[in-house]
Amino acid sequence: MKNFLYALTQYYQNICSALKHGDGIAALALRCYLVPIFWMAGTNKLMHFQDTVEWFGNSDWGLGLPFPHIMAALATSTELAGAVLLTLGLLTRWISIPLIITMLVAIFTVHLPNGWQAIADPNAPFANAQVLASAEKLEAARGILENYGNYDWLTSSGSFVILNNGIEFAVTYLIMLLALIVLGGGRYFSLDYWIKRKFSK
């Protein structure tokens, strides 16, 4: 029995030793997932920068943040730089920190009042009053479209939904960035790895 456990332990250690060469794949997957998200967010802010500034600063229909020009510039540059650096796997841990801050700001200033769900689904476990109320509105919209529109054509690209804009996606990105702080850029698939390897020699 002792010999069997020893052999099993050795077998397990051999598997772990072989798998460690692929441990950078998880970090690469996280980076590849986040890159287009931050690139689109950053370029959208840049292309409509004045609108972004007004939205950041206006307390009536916007976020009511102080120093809106500075805040908009920081958010835009962080997202664009984040997309580039995550693509290269360069300074992965460092750029994850300001990106986490942007996610926290988005969560607490934009999404939190809407609850958890990004897409309103009254059957989901975290459905709040706003989401529950969306069911009747969505059904009414479907009825109008079925009676007065080409419903089959309108839904050929997917079902109609109501955007709830909750914290779901922002929290997901936040968790992924926290994982990158731990993982770094990843073995073999990042400049971080090769720079560290060069200087460690």
UniProtKB/TrEMBL annotation:
InterPro entries: DoxX, DoxX-like_oxidoreductase
Pfam families hit by this protein: DoxX (PF07681)
A GO CC annotation given for this chain: plasma membrane
This protein's record includes keyword Membrane: yes
Topology within the bilayer: Multi-pass membrane protein
Transmembrane segment boundaries: 21-41, 61-87, 94-112, 170-189
Cellular compartment(s): Cell membrane
First and last residue of the signal peptide: none
Superkingdom of origin organism: Bacteria
Keyword annotations of the record: Cell membrane, Membrane, Transmembrane, Transmembrane helix
Sequence similarity: Belongs to the DoxX family.
UniProt xrefs under PANTHER family: DOXX FAMILY PROTEIN, OXIDOREDUCTASE CATD-RELATED
The name this protein goes by in its record: DoxX family protein
Upper lineage: Bacteria, Pseudomonadati, Pseudomonadota, Gammaproteobacteria, Moraxellales
